[in-house]
Amino acid sequence: MKALRLSTLLLALLAGASSAADSPARPGASSQDTWRDVSADNLVLISTRYGTVAVELAPDFAPNHVARMRKLLRSHFYDGRTFYRVIDGFVAQGGADEDKSATPDAPVNAQILKDWPPLKAEFDATLAAGDVFAPLGNADPFAPEVGFIDGYPVGRDPKDGKSWIIQCPGVFAFARDNDENTATTEFYIVIGQAPRRLDRNLTAFGRVISGMQLVQKLNRGDEQVDAGVIGDVSMRDPIIRMSLASELPEKDRPHYQVMRTDSPTFAGMLAQRRHPPPEFYHRPPSPNLDICGVPLPVRLRP
Amino acid sequence: MKALRLSTLLLALLAGASSAADSPARPGASSQDTWRDVSADNLVLISTRYGTVAVELAPDFAPNHVARMRKLLRSHFYDGRTFYRVIDGFVAQGGADEDKSATPDAPVNAQILKDWPPLKAEFDATLAAGDVFAPLGNADPFAPEVGFIDGYPVGRDPKDGKSWIIQCPGVFAFARDNDENTATTEFYIVIGQAPRRLDRNLTAFGRVISGMQLVQKLNRGDEQVDAGVIGDVSMRDPIIRMSLASELPEKDRPHYQVMRTDSPTFAGMLAQRRHPPPEFYHRPPSPNLDICGVPLPVRLRP
Fold this sequence. Notes:
The structure is a homodimer of 302-residue chains. By secondary structure, chain A is of the alpha+beta class.
């Protein structure tokens, strides 16, 4: 009897980068060539009822927003707050939700704004010389150039030399009001098809490196009502704790590694995705890749 | 005191189509011009522990796969089975998971294959004259032409006149083995950034019209282990019931309507997304849209 495992190969080929990731392309290449340690100062751990989500911060792209986030985490600002505005296919927003908690008698808003004044936007950055941009290898409908820097999906404009993190699923950013320079404490995680119009219009400064499947479990609001804010407060998923790993005892810190996107291993993975095996793909797909559809491998340090 | 509601406008503008959807673009246009009723014969209801997911079937694109699905539903094939292979950012696959349940002594596989023989692939279709293709209005990196037909995101090739449903988030399709003509009973729902390489390589024949946020709650497998199959059977989310609405008593049928993608209202929504308001978007985004990033409005019949 032939057991039929439907689409096993499909999933094996598409879903992960494990085989490429585990076998360096260059004989003799050390694991240091392929993997980069995530610094504890850049590692955010969000404890939810579903488990812990890990976010890596990207200070090169938005130094002041990263500094603000570290300061918020050191003061345990988010502990006990919620994901209060979660829109399926778009973003999960967490923080203080100032409107709901503010009343004339308890103006928590005013206090938050005083403690955490609005930041100047860091929508894009002129990176220091020596950054390693690994081009995706095909055109993108939304940016002059796209590729990867340090494991982040990045857009670049050769005209002004600016780079920015693209708003792919998993990207971590500060929300803001209409004015550009109004980010204070509220953050969001992209949870749906990349909302590329947000590129360079909001400050993205990190990405989820573990636990996106937990973020996806968060209760949603109704996008047609109050812009997705979850009206029934009891339905908002709590942020039980949100910590900077470097503030934790050494024994409590997970040690993540992200694949170096300038490594031959990553280049090999891209090539494999561009030309997937004909055994399954009887019609060769377009050789174009979607910058937000490329998995960025992460592992715990062996 | 100015209460700061961070990014409310952002979310209101981006997330939904409610304002456009509720105000027809042509004065005097009746609601019949904007909304299309979903036929009970094309409506699949998947009951999960998180709530009910609704899928609309698209017989024009894959008549034999739709006929198979209706037959499977009438025989209650899926009731009590599971979502057994769920890969975050990719697909949620449900059905019998033949490999796990098959042993030489209990060859459920063989019986399933006998009862539900492999189908000839319907990766694309020559639609009948009169289909209304509403072009997206910009180029796509993966298909010669993209647009919308009957509320589905569709690719077209003018060279051979074929059309196909694009594998956007929420699209419903049959899994298969390496051979093209091996779909039998296993289905999947796309849950991540659109895996466009699957376009025209698998048979897509519907889309989720309600409850994607419930699909997102499904427990995931580990993509690095057994191609995402959830090894601990107790962690697989059950398909409690999976029914064709036309088989249910009238009182138990929800009545959905999807926005006509050939309506002026939808065209207005597209234009609004292409040029979002400068009050928030201080840097005008690329006027290009992602075919999989356009919301396809659905409502319950008023």
